[in-house]
Each structure stands twice: as C-alpha cells, then as structure tokens.
Amino acid sequence: MSDVDYRKRFVVEPGKRVKLAKIDPSYCGKHLAEEDARSEAERYGHKLNKLQDLLYSEARHSLLIVLQAMDAGGKDGTVRHAIGSMNPMGADVTAFKQPTAEELKHDFLWRVHPHAPAKGMVAIFNRSHYEDVLVVRVHKLVKKSVWSKRYELINDFERLLRHENNTQVIKFFLHISPEEQLKRFHERLTDPARNWKISEDDYKEREYWDDYMKAYEDVFAETSTRHAPWYIIPANHKWFRNLAVSQIEAATMEDLGMKMPKPQVNLARIHQEYHRASEAQSSGTVK
Ligand code: AMP
Ligand code: MG
C-alpha cells in the first residue's frame, strides 16, 4: 500500500479557516497501532538523516521547523524525535519562554531572528514568535490593535527568511484533546521522572482552552502560506504524530532539489598525492 501524503492531508490551505473541533486528534490513518507503522517510521528516519546530510553539505538551503501546541501537547517529544535521526552538528533547537525584561523592551521578533537557521542548518523552534499572537492575545498582554497587526509582520518575517536565506519554513500544530492533556498531566504527577515538567500555570491555562483554539484558528487562517504552511497534526497518539511530522519534513526537504556539492579540490591531483603517500608508506620511507 502506498503511503498517505501527510502534507496534503494535514496542510491548512492558504486563507482557509479551519475548525479545530472538527479535526480528530486521535486520527492515525490506516494504522491500527504503533507496530503497524514501525517500518514506515524507520524509512522516514533514514530518509531524513540522508536529506539533512545533504542540506548540511550543500549549505545552500536551510529549514525552520516551528512547533506549537497546548501544554503537554508533545513539543518536547517531537523535538527529541525530529533531532534523533539527524546529525546534531547541523541542527539547533530554541525554546521560547516568557520574554525577559530586556526582550520586552524590543519588538516581538527581536529575540527570534538570531535563532533563524544559517544556510545548511535545521532550526527547530519549541514555541515561537506565534506565542505573540496566542498567549499574548488570550491573556490580553497587549492591546488588540497591537497583536492583530502581527500576523502580517510574521508573514513578512517568514518571507524575508525565505528570500534572503533560502529558508524553508514549516509549522506544526500538535493537536491534542483536553482529555489527552489531562491524562498527560496525570502522568506528570505520578511519574517522578516527569514531575519537573509540571508548571504552576498548567491548570489555569487549561481553563482558556476554547480561547486558545480560537486564537490558533486565526493564526492558521492568517499565516498559513504556500511557502510557510501550517500543518495540523493529530497528536493524541505520539507514534502517529512522529510519523506524520517526519514524513512531512522529509518530503519538504526532498522538494528543495538539493545536490551533493562538487568537491572544491582537484580530485585527480589528490589521487596522485594519495598514491605517492601510499607508495612511501609501503616502501618504509615514512612511518
Ligand atoms: P513551557 O514551554 O511549558 O516551558 O512554557 C513556556 C511558557 O512561556 C508558556 O507558558 C508560554 O506561553 C510562555 N511564553 C512563550 N513565549 C511567550 C511570549 N512571547 N509572551 C508571553 N509568554 C510566552
Ligand atoms: Mg509547560
């Protein structure tokens, strides 16, 4: 059976308004369970690894992966999985927390731009500039007249990255249900290895669930563009989330049309040098 193209399945078409309540966060396609998807997942992992090598060695393009989700939505796990199959030398991860006093004295993109990927690199944002039209809006941290202008500024920023630095931007919303969130909060509470993830605000934030969904729906309608698309990933099942994200990443990189760079040196001459060195080695002229 040929693989489902998750880019087509989960992309938010530019300008389209989606209703998150109508998207099933437990969807897992044709797969019934994790074991079913294992070989497909391994294949994408392999592909990703090769493509990232190519991205790094060609050093012409770069990839920016934006991850957004509600608390316990699986951002950390997705980072771990996405990085797992990559060469760490070619990848950077940045987590965006509450802005510092210094950051608040600047425009909202000031703290973001330095983390945009250099040519050849993959950058992953765990939360991002989108918090400035999400949490900031939901908690009325700035006036509507301020946050409502930010969609356009974000689109301009992402276009700048593309035009000036060949940066391909892809944005994932990891879609979980409130029930799944509560289940994961419970795991955090009962598993000592996860206690550290608990935040004072977790339960308070949950009460704003509907406001967040509305804010996300506006984000998708305003900022899913042909060149920097949003994908809504059903994320109640972690294995399916990882599968979909890695397929989309791999397909996106494949479309960049990358080629191994030509060697910078004269290979024929280096061959001769190698032979000279190996003759000297076997005749005992050098140790
Ligand atoms: P976590 O990702 O769970 O470590 O939490 C980071 C917290 O920082 C979340 O509650 C975010 O909503 C918050 N945060 C991130 N960016 C911003 C921002 N620009 N303004 C206000 N809060 C933010
Ligand atoms: Mg948190």
Mind describing the biggest β-sheet?
A: 5 strands, parallel
Quantity of strands, as a count: 5
Shape, principal axes of CA atoms: globular
> How would you state the average pLDDT, rounded?
95
Percent helix range: 40-55%
Given helix and strand content, the structural type is: alpha/beta
Report on this model:
The chain has 287 residues and is an alpha/beta fold. It is 47% helix and 11% strand. The chain has helices at residues 6-10, 34-58, 75-84, 101-104, 135-138, 144-147, 150-165, 178-190, 202-206, 209-223, 238-254, 267-282; strands spanning 62-69, 91-95, 122-126, 167-175, 230-234. Strand 2 (91-95), helix 4 and strand 3 form a beta-alpha-beta unit. Helix 2 (34-58) runs parallel beside helix 11 and helix 3 crosses helix 11 (238-254).
Secondary-structure map:
Layout: H1 6-10, H2 34-58, E1 62-69, H3 75-84, E2 91-95, H4 101-104, E3 122-126, H5 135-138, H6 144-147, H7 150-165, E4 167-175, H8 178-190, H9 202-206, H10 209-223, E5 230-234, H11 238-254, H12 267-282
Helix pairs in contact: 2-11, 3-11
Bound molecules: adenosine monophosphate (AMP) and magnesium ion.
Residues 71, 199 line the site of magnesium ion (MG).
